[in-house]
Amino acid sequence: KVGPATVTGPHGSRPRRTALCTVYQSRRLDAADVVRTFDLPVTTPATPLIESRTLSMRFVESSPADVLHLEMRAGRSGPVVIDIAAEGALLHPNADSLFAFGFLPACELQCDLQIDGSVSRSLLTAQGDLFALYARWYGHARQPRVVARERDDAVATGADTMLFFSGGVDSCYSLLEAGTPLRSLVTVVGADIGPQETEGAAWVTDLGRRFGERFGLRPIVVRTAARRCFNRMVAWDHFHGPFLAGVAHLLAPQHGRALV
Predict the structure, then answer these.
(1) Do the Cβ atoms of 244 and 188 come closer than 8 Å?
(2) Read out DSSP for 179-235?
(3) Exposed, middle or buried, 106 (CB in 10 Å: 0-12/13-18/19+)?
(4) What's the predicted TM-score (pTM) here?
(5) C-alpha triplet 211, 231, 118: angle, nearest 5°
(6) Do 161 and 181 form a contact (C-beta atoms < 8 A)?
(7) What's the rounded Cα separation, in Å, for the pair 83 and 71?
(8) Nearest-CA neighbor of 154 among 185, 123, 126, 125?
(9) On the CB side of 98, how many CA atoms lie within 13 Å of its CA?
(10) DSSP letter at 59?
(11) Dihedral of CA 44/50/52/54: which sign?
(12) β-pairing verdict for 12-15 and 67-74
């Protein structure tokens, strides 16, 4: 097992949580969980968790659809496929979304990231600044090499703004004080609330629809079991924001801005 290391972040010093040992809501995932998922060797923190291999990501679909299949492969292991489904909007597969889904896990696994598709130049240019932020917050020591084609234009070109809505205090405050016209309320089942929590999932999706009707906004529901897989690679409280950013890119190009 990886020995503890202390890092200093915006909330003070704390033990660093690694991909080999993650604690979330008192549920402990040990090295065997990661090894079983991706056939990863147990190593020291100084070496990549999948040696010189690469975390590869692609969407099976190439056209917009209401269900996308995200395929991830680590090294020589077989692929893991994650379903992402939407109600109220189409999902647009794109490489910017794959970058958001894959960059932080690659930092945790200390490996490179290979993306099937063309990532916007502005996003590739910002990866150094993004890694510096992760290094300060979470103590990462190795910046992933991102292997992807580059394109000039961004995915999100629309004028509409979406708000990720969970029914909590933060998202309700953002709804009232957004400071910009909103078009859509997006509820993600499988992020804060697991898809197996049927009662809670039904409550929050109904709440999103009712708030959408009350404020004249289009409700969008995204359902996925992605957390079950990503939890084995990265602490979810670290990855929650990047994951929502990836979902936001999937809802482009009609939305040009997302509030998290």
Answers:
(1) yes
(2) SS---EEEEEETTTB-TT-HHHHHHHHHHHHHHHHHHT-EEEEEEE-HHHHHTTTS-
(3) buried
(4) 0.78
(5) 80
(6) yes
(7) 9
(8) 123
(9) 30
(10) E
(11) negative
(12) unpaired
Residue 15 scores a pLDDT above 60: no
252 pLDDT band, cuts 50/70/90, is confident
Q: Cis (ω within 30 of 0) for the bond into 219? A: no
pLDDT in tens, 90-144: 999 999 999 999 999 999 999 999 999 999 999 999 999 999 999 999 999 999 9
User: What is d(CA 235, CA 232) in angstroms, rounded to the nearest whole number?
Assistant: 8
Residues 140, 117: Cα–Cα separation, whole Å: 26
Label the pairing between strands 160-164 and 184-189.
parallel
Q: Are 240 and 260 in contact (CB under 8 A)?
A: no
The DSSP call for residue 159 is: S
> Which is nearest to 92 in space by CA: 216, 183, 188, 222?
222
Token pair of 47, please? 């070496």
Quick check: 251 and 158 in contact, CB under 8 A? no
Contact 51, 58 (CB under 8 A): no
Tokens of 113: 């990231």
Instruction: Specify whether the CB–CB gap between 69 and 61 falls below 8 A.
Output: yes
On the 0-12 / 13-18 / 19+ scale of CB atoms within 10 A, 231 is: middle
